[in-house]
Amino acid sequence: MAVPLYEAKAAFFRTLGHPARIRVLELLQDRPMPVHELLGRIDIEPSNLSQQLAVLRRTQLVTATREGNTVVYALSTPDVVDLLHAARRILTEMITDQGELLDALRETPARVAPA
């Protein structure tokens, strides 16, 4: 039996649920990178990066190619960049809305509840 679409989407978003995976995707949106360069730009242990890259490979968000002794990672599709940009826009809107609420709270005098 096929997995319902909403479950597939939930599994996809769980894949994005680790900060190191998001950081890898952000770095790869500029260009493909070898593992040693990713390590130099992410504060993470090599074994942990390897695990996170394996998750991204399994879900086909990144591809890995061997160039001699070096493994180079790249985004599997430009749609990943679109997804990262959409997340940034959504977060910006959320923060803006929260800022507007905070401004309104600061402008409204507080009333003390009767004892």
Q: Descriptors for this entry?
A:
Arc Repressor Mutant, subunit A, single chain, about 120 residues, 5 helices, elongated, three-stranded antiparallel β-sheet, alpha+beta
Describe the model.
The chain has five helices and three strands, in the order ααβααββα. Helix content is 61%, strand content 12%. A hairpin with a 2-residue loop joins strand 2 and strand 3 (70-75). The mean pLDDT is 91. It has a three-stranded antiparallel beta sheet with strand order 1-3-2. The protein has 115 residues and is of the alpha+beta class.
List the helices and strands and how they pair.
Elements: H1 5-15, H2 19-28, E1 33-34, H3 35-41, H4 46-58, E2 62-67, E3 70-75, H5 79-107
Antiparallel strand pairs: 1-3, 2-3
Q: Could you tell me the radius of gyration in angstroms?
A: 20 Å
> What share of the residues lie within helices?
55-70%
Per DSSP, the total helix count is 5
Number of extended strands: 3
Summarize the structure.
This protein is of the alpha+beta class and 115 residues long. Helix content is 61%, strand content 12%.
